[in-house]
Amino acid sequence: GNAKLSIDERGQANSAIELDGFGDAMIVQPSPKFNLRNEVTLAFKFMSRVDNQRQEYLAMEEFTTGQGTMFGVGTTQPASAQFLTAGVIIPGIYTCGTYPVVTDAVGVTTAFNPVENVWYHLALVYTTTSYRIYIDGNKIAEVATNGKPFPYCSTANLLIGSWWVSDMISLNGKMDDVRVYNRALTEKELSDLFKVSLYLRKG
User: Fold this and answer.
1) Which of 10, 80, 124, 191 could form an S-S bond across to 42 if both were Cys, CB 3.0 to 4.6 Å?
2) What is the pLDDT of residue 103?
3) What is the 3-state secondary structure of 50-95?
4) Closest by Cα among 141, 147, 166 to 61
5) Rounded to whole angstroms, how far apart are CA atoms 34 and 36?
C-alpha cells in the first residue's frame, strides 16, 4: 500500500499516518504487550476524506489470514451514510485459529457520522461490565458486556487504518496519536486526554 508519514492537523510534518484507501495498512507485529485481557482503552485521532464507503480505523487480527481477531473499529455504510461501529470478539465463543462471525462479537453501531476532512478524537473503553465509545470526550454509545473479558490472541497484528488483507477496507484519511491501554481509563482521564488533543489542535 501507500501508507506514509504526513502532516498532522496542526501542520506538523511527519506526525500523522496518511492512507489513500486503496489497500493501505500500517502493521504492528504481535507482542506480549498486547495481552490486554479484562480491561482495555483504545484512543486515537482520525480524519476521513470520504463519507460513502466502509473504512477501518483500528483492528487487531492476523493481517494475512483474518484469524486471531480481537477487535475492529471503523465505519459501516447503511444506505448512503457512514456510521461509526466497533466490535470486540467474545472469548469462549470464538477461538483464535478461526475467522469470526457477527455472533462472536460484542458490538455497537452508533448514530455518529464522521464529516469529511474533520479531525476527531475517538476513545473506546472495554470492561467486563460495559463497552463505551467516546467522540471528542463525549460518550456516544454504551452496551453491556455481561462479564465477558477482553479477548487475547497471541498471533494478532495491530492494524492501523486497515482490516485484513482479503478485506482491506482501508481508511482514506489520516490517523494520529494511537494509544492502547491495559486498563479502563476513568471519565476524568478520558476528558483530560481529549483536552490535551484539543490543546494541541489549537496550538
Assistant:
1) 124
2) 66
3) CCCCCEEEEEEECCCCCCCCCEEEEEECCCCCCEEEEEEECECCEC
4) 166
5) 5
